[in-house]
Amino acid sequence: MASRTQVDVSRVYTEKGDTYARVNTIGTTGVRPFVLVPGIGVSSTYFERLAPNLNEFGPVHALDLPGFGGVPHPDQAMTIRLYADLVGKVIDDLELTDPIIVGHSMGTQIVSDLVSRRPEISTAVLIGPVVNPRERWVARAALRFLQAAWHEPFKVKFLAVSAYLLCGFKWFSRILPEMMQYPIEKALPGIQAHTLVIRGQYDAVAPRKWVEQVGRLLPNSRLWEMPGAAHSVMHAHAEEVALLCVEHAQQATSGTPLRDSNSLRVYDTAADDIPDTAPAVSIPDAVAAVKGRLTEAVGVARGDDDLIAEGKTEHAEAMERSGDASRVAASERERAGAEARAAAARRGEPGAG
């Protein structure tokens, strides 16, 4: 289980050397590596539940980009192209062979820009792609974000608020126009990679019609909608999204062309054995998780990557223990229910089957 909880932190600097991407890595072995690119204002923490589930397939590198997550930024605003170039440099410096690139929100713009210029990348995942060209103005985007946020879990709302405060209004306001102006619809047709597109049922930021248009623009894609989810679907439904990502990566590896790219399929949450509710966290694990967060925050403030890694690892270990305990409890409930039904069947009670 160490690979699911041990976090290593490193830096990859821009070509100018004026700032860097913070790379948070779990795992060292596996079929293929993942690179996770977050959206505007937020950090790799948005992937804290997704990354361990992907780590069963390969090592995972979750990025904190300049200006976000406490990473310093240059004096001038970075464009989507500059962010994409930095993600490309992460891939090159870490010597990653054909990684699976996952982008969320503004991260989908960064991924699209990069992958459209790198035909050697065979697999991409776009979660909640932005910006819908029919709604390319800030007031409408803010409204859509608030509509989606209403359906987000409390923890996601807390992560978002704390991340935006850390980012600061000045840098956020510089990057927002870059995000709003970037024409992702022009980059999508140039993507040769097998591309998985995921949206949440209540994601007003990436509405259904827009995601279907994304599918039509992509040469090779699959589209999925997650019931009950909003814009941050990869956090609230991490295990389901991980299953889709791994299945997609396996299919892409086989070289089989994707079909039904214009068809948005709805994920059947009743067809898997994933709990519909988040695992309960014990008081000791909650305390350990908070302590990990505080340690990470101190590390960010000091620019101490070792301390950041220590805090992230402590938080991940607490969440892993909590998840294991919940899975054991669920298994025990299922076993007890099966025994009760078997006993009722022996007694010939109705409904026992």
Give structural notes.
The protein is of the alpha/beta class. It folds into two domains: 2-272, Alpha/Beta hydrolase fold, catalytic domain (Rossmann fold, 3-Layer(aba) Sandwich), CATH 3.40.50.1820; 279-348. It is built from 13 helices and nine strands. A hairpin with a 6-residue loop joins strand 1 and strand 2 (20-26). Mean pLDDT is 87; it is low at 325-331.
Residues in helix, %: 40-55%
How many structural domains in the coordinates?
A: 2
Number of β-strand runs? 9
Provide the gyration radius in Å: 21 Å
Mean pLDDT: 87
CATH homology superfamily name of the largest domain: Alpha/Beta hydrolase fold, catalytic domain
The CATH class name of the largest domain reads: Alpha Beta
- What fold name goes in the CATH topology slot of the largest domain? Rossmann fold
Content-based structural category: alpha/beta
Side by side, the strands of the main sheet go 1-2-4-3-5-6-7-8-9
- What would the principal axes of the Cα set say about the shape? globular
The run of helices and strands is HEEEHEHEHEHHHHEHEHHEHH
CATH architecture label name of the largest domain: 3-Layer(aba) Sandwich
Number of helices: 13
- Sheet of most strands: 9 strands, mixed
Beta-strand level of the residues, as a percent range? 5-15%
CA-CA gap between termini: 38 Å
Uncertain segments:
325-331
Give the arrangement of secondary structure elements:
Layout: H1 2-5, E1 8-13, E2 20-26, E3 34-37, H2 50-54, E4 60-64, H3 80-93, E5 100-104, H4 106-116, E6 123-127, H5 138-149, H6 154-167, H7 169-181, H8 184-187, E7 194-200, H9 208-217, E8 221-226, H10 233-236, H11 238-254, E9 264-266, H12 283-302, H13 305-347
Parallel strand pairs: 3-4, 3-5, 5-6, 6-7, 7-8, 8-9
Antiparallel strand pairs: 1-2, 2-4
